[in-house]
């Protein structure tokens, strides 16, 4: 009887709750300069099919839409380099607002959405949030977007000098406006910022040999088949006798963004500007 009693009166194990993860947030994708909605079909499909995102909405932008920016030529601020995003880019911000509204309508109560901005779409997302509000947006992920913040330990993360030969502010003041008037891209629990930087090719000066920056270089030649580079002196390998024509060409693009040609980047935007 004692044995039977002990068997039947043994304590019942307390169930341990199994933690559950919330489903991925719906996403609104902001196209970059010159891109259209169709360019992001593969990205949207991958988010849905491989990562379980319920909805990935791309803003309705076509390539011809970007010709609307020519209206800025009539604004005196364009020629003085002090152009503002509005009203020149109102058409883009309105398309983004519709995509954001659609993504929000597909979110669970209290879930919020994520914004993914490619290239110029990254800093235009900051303009959008400044003008239309942050409500319901939990994350801004930017892909190859030129942000401009001056950190004392990273000399190239500064706006390009105003009077350097060969440097032209291609945004005609728009990036300066974003830096001065939009909320800083600072990671907070309420709104998280993630910047993804590409390291594909290092640029070079147009004339003469570039001296590789120690914090910016890896190995000579091909980097595992994924990128081109100039040797880091710490690797004890000889540097190329002269940069390639391609590196010089790419470097001129980098120079327009950060004021330096001999830095790393994705071929369009230097890595040091994605902070």
UniProtKB/TrEMBL annotation:
Pfam name, any one: Palm_thioest
Residues covered by region (Disordered): 222-242
A GO cellular component entry from the record: chloroplast
InterPro entries named among the record's database cross-references: AB_hydrolase_fold (IPR029058)
Domain of life: Eukaryota
Sequence ranges of Polar residues compositional bias: 226-235
SUPFAM superfamilies with a match to the protein in the record: alpha/beta-Hydrolases
PANTHER family the record matches: ALPHA/BETA-HYDROLASES SUPERFAMILY PROTEIN, GPI INOSITOL-DEACYLASE
Name of the protein in question: GPI inositol-deacylase
């Amino acid at each position: 009887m004692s044995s039977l009693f002990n068997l039947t009166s043994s304590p019942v194990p307390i169930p341990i709750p199994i933690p559950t993860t919330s489903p991925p947030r719906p996403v609104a994708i902001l196209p970059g300069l010159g891109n259209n909605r169709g360019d992001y079909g593969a990205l949207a499909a991958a988010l849905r099919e491989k990562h379980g995102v319920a909805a990935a909405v791309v803003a309705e932008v076509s390539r011809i839409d970007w010709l609307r920016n020519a209206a800025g030529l009539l604004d005196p601020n364009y020629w003085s380099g002090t152009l503002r995003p509005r009203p020149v880019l109102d058409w883009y911000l309105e398309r983004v607002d519709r995509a954001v509204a659609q993504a929000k309508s597909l979110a669970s109560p209290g879930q919020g959405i994520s914004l993914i901005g490619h290239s110029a779409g990254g800093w235009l997302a900051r303009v959008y949030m400044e003008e239309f509000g942050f409500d319901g947006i939990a994350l801004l992920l930017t892909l190859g977007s030129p942000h401009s913040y001056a950190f004392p330990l990273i000399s190239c993360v500064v706006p390009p000098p105003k009077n350097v030969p060969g440097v032209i502010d291609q945004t005609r003041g728009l990036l300066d406006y974003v830096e001065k008037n939009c909320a800083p891209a600072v990671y907070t629990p309420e709104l998280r910022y993630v910047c993804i930087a590409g390291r594909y090719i290092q640029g070079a000066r147009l004339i003469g040999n570039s001296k590789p920056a120690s914090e910016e270089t890896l190995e000579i030649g091909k980097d595992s088949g994924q990128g081109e580079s100039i040797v880091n002196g710490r690797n004890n390998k000889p540097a190329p006798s002269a940069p390639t024509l391609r590196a010089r060409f790419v470097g001129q693009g980098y120079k327009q963004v950060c004021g330096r040609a001999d830095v790393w980047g994705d071929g369009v935007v230097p890595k040091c500007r994605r902070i």
